[in-house]
Amino acid sequence: MSVKKYYQDAYMKTFHTYVQEQRQDEHGSWYAVLEQTAFYPTGGGQPHDMGTLNDKRVTDVEEVNGEIRHYIEEPFEDISGVVKGQIDWKRRFDHMQQHAGQHILSAAFAEALQYETISFHLGKEFLTIDLNVSDISNSDAMIAEELANLIIREARPIETKWVTEAELSDYPLRKQPAVTGEIRLVIIPDFDYNGCGGTHPRSTSEVGAIKILDWEKHKGHIRLQFICGDRVLHQLNRKHGLLKELTSVLQAPEENMVLTAEQMITKQKEQEKALEGLKEVLLTYEAEGLLGTEKAGFTLIQKTYSDRPIQELQKIAQHIISKREEAIVLLVVQNDQKLQLVAAKGSLPTINLREVAQRVFPLINGKGGGKESFVQGGGEAVMSKEELLEKLVNEL
What we know:
By secondary structure, the chain is an alpha+beta fold. It has helices at about 5-10, 90-115, 140-155, 230-250, 255-290, 310-325, 355-360, 385-395; strands at about 5, 15-25, 30-35, 35, 50-55, 55-65, 65-70, 80-85, 115-120, 125-130, 160-165, 185-190, 190-195, 210-220, 220-230, 295, 300-305, 325-335, 340-345, 365-370, 375-380.
């Protein structure tokens, strides 16, 4: 088994060792097993380290049956010599900050509100913990956040200790470890005692800060989203940049931004409503402007369109038959690779338009619905819109 140097010194950035063996896994990916390693493998909610072994980039680190596999982009030509391991320190320290911050925030919820953490995930952008409660208030979240940041400012030590199962009863653990045998405890004296295999800084002060972002209900619990350390600064910089852009776009100071945005949304809705009214008027004029051709006992009105919503054709047809009870209206539109049709009639014609349309739909691999006086539907543009209209007229 490889010597786990990340437990001896979580701040180790470089190390030298030998490659014990080099193999491919069942997917054909190459990995190296080292005599000793400072690369942390994925586990306990904490993602793996990345970095290099000599000139080979380490893309993944996994522990499989006690064997720590360092996945590399390409195999070593010779594994007989000493290799230098280089940890991606920015990634490692970020994970140390986030993982320790999770311990602190979970302990703060337990200490101040008796809310138990039942799961934890450390992602690229933020962290989540699932709290064993069905709801949470803003005041509850702020109580825990303030306590967590107080513990950070107090710069309490973060200690690690290996103990046996028999010795666990000597410590006020928040949760009993799932593993057996020798167990690694991460301890913040007089605040948090927790079984954990992850990497952590030496002091709570190195976590920097904790900020709760949001929460939601998830499977009967509360899933809380938060960030720690340098991620707080990154989030602040990003959001501050967005606020600066918005103040320029909205021409309003930050303190008036919400009111200004609400006023703009209200004005936009009023304008959209007015535009809808104008569009209705235009559709009415368009409908009345269509010329009819006298047929046996009815007036036939037919027209083709391109790139128009079928809802507009429906309104045109409805307006015509409301004014002309002897009218039959056939309208066809092509939108991209789709043909759509509307067929409508006034109260005088006795023909069943639904039967007419049902004979035409198969010609365009389509379907539709409606009643004998008003039908709509569509299909594929396997013919031109003019050809489809001609088919309709012929069937009529």
